[in-house]
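Why should sequence recovery work at all? Because a backbone constrains its sequence more than one might expect. Tight turns favour small or flexible residues, buried strands favour hydrophobic ones, and helices have their own preferences. The token representation captures these environments compactly. In the example below, the structure is given first.
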């Protein structure tokens, strides 16, 4: 199943979910011997490949206090002990931008892929229902920045609900969960499935995901 956004899309909206951590955060690897030089991050004795690190995940580096560290994009996994990293870029296809150099850094590699996959499955099911009506193959769906933003808001809503577990109704995590739930619903109404059957650059069909409601049976 496709994942319609990556961790770096969540980072662009809410860095605190990576720096703050908490129950819903999946920590794949951590250490205390990280080094940054240019756009290269290294950690001797760490196996990023075995840990399942992939591009689009988030590396948090800090000296003493995790919440006051920096959250960086993982651009690529270059070897078992080396990553190409970047400060958050406006365009994920642009060249990496190196963070400040450092050594003996504490680090954590974190992901919210389970939450991203859950929201992606929901969106994919809506698109599947549209495709059955419109005669469109799922293989023809193309990802977009709008779809990534929608998926990110849905994942953030799920994350903040988990962070607010057992908290008082006034807890800020509940406020953020409701905010992102509303954004997720609103952005779905703005998504359009545009069909250009003859390839002439003009859409013969346009459908909105807001026309589809999923019901549990």
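From this structural description, the recovered sequence reads:
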């Amino acid at each position: 199943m496709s994942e319609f956004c990556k961790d770096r899309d969540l980072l662009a909206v809410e860095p605190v979910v990576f720096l703050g951590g908490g129950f819903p955060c999946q920590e794949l690897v951590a250490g205390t011997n990280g080094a940054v030089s240019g756009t290269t991050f290294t950690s001797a004795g760490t196996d990023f490949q075995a840990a399942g690190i992939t591009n689009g995940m988030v590396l948090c580096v800090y000296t003493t206090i995790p919440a006051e560290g920096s959250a960086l994009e993982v651009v690529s996994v270059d070897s078992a002990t080396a990553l190409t990293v970047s400060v958050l870029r406006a365009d994920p296809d642009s060249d990496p931008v190196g963070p400040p150099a450092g050594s003996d850094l504490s680090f954590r590699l974190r992901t919210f892929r389970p939450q991203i996959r859950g929201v992606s499955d929901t969106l994919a099911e809506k698109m599947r229902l549209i495709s059955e009506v419109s005669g469109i193959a799922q293989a023809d769906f193309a990802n977009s920045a709008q779809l990534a933003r929608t998926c990110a808001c849905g994942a953030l809503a799920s994350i903040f609900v988990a962070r607010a577990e057992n908290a008082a109704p006034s807890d800020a995590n509940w406020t953020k969960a409701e905010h992102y739930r509303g954004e997720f619903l609103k952005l779905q109404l703005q998504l359009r499935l545009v069909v250009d059957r003859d390839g002439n650059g003009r859409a013969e069909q346009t459908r909105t995901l807001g026309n589809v409601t999923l019901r549990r049976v």
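A few observations help interpret the result. The chain has two domains: 26-111, 114-211.
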